[in-house]
Amino acid sequence: MKSRITFDIEAGAGYIYLLPDTETYTIQATEDVGDSPLLVDIDEDDRIVGIECFGANAKKLSPIAGLEKIYHENGEILSFRLSEKPVKKHYLLKGIQFYFADERSKYFIGFDIVDFQKYKKQILISMIK
């Protein structure tokens, strides 16, 4: 399996792939996550397939760039966390719950996959730590 987290030092950008590299998809759109600095890539099935991070949020990806297994099972939910800071704001977008540690949504701390009709758990199981 290929890395699910990348970091480009020169661009100051990071990317989180939400699906395993065995999945094929075509990006149809890129959207903002609320008023946060994150951008998400949406495929033809209306799934978020990737999260683009910039600046300080991207730098938090640098130490974990190269990881293939990015999710933790939390009951029925699959979670990804960059920090265990308390959640101050959250957004639900296309079956993904995004979490931020500040009211202005600048400090990204992670997300949960909550819609397993859209995101098939049997496909994501290979990405669980």
From TrEMBL:
Name this protein carries in UniProt: DUF2283 domain-containing protein
Organism field: Cytobacillus stercorigallinarum
Lineage, opening ranks: Bacteria, Bacillati, Bacillota, Bacilli, Bacillales
